[in-house]
Amino acid sequence: MPYADVSTAAIAREAGVQRGLIHYYFGTKRDLFLEVVRDLTAGYAGQAPPADPTMSLEETVGLCVRLFLDAAENNADTWLAALDAEGFGQDPELRRIVNKTRDLTVEHMLAVLHVPEPTDTLRAVLRTYSGLAEVATRQWLQEKTLSRAQVHTLLAGSLLVLVRDIAPAVEQT
Q1: Which InterPro entries does the annotation name (predicted)?
Q2: pLDDT of residue 45
Q3: 30-172 CATH
């Protein structure tokens, strides 16, 4: 259900608890939502597989994208809401949570992609990739204009080009 249509009474009813418990443990509906997003995004940041020097860059990127798409698909409603599908994204605390997740994800990506001495420029390039990933995934999950396979191809190919070609070119500029 859309965020605006959900009440703490409905949440309590679905959870089989008194509404007062929701307020006691989480405070407002917004606080509960932020806690759900924190929990969900903490899982996203850790989705990167451990660094495996036997895997090629292409295999590693493909695996990372697959794990990201699995997480997005399994939590589509909350994931889309966290990316402000309902206009909730202007909330400064929600923005802080999402930005922290982006930063953690970039650090995991750097480790998995075997980047020994990443620069701030490379980190910035990888952060911009998150925008592409968000829009492409929204096209798949919400708009239904791309299939999962198409989004995988788009994201894996783009990440490879960013790491191999674009980031080094940006460094030289």
Answers
A1: DesT_TetR_C (IPR054129), Homeodomain-like_sf (IPR009057), HTH-type_TetR-like_transc_reg (IPR050109), HTH_TetR (IPR001647)
A2: 55
A3: 1.10.357.10
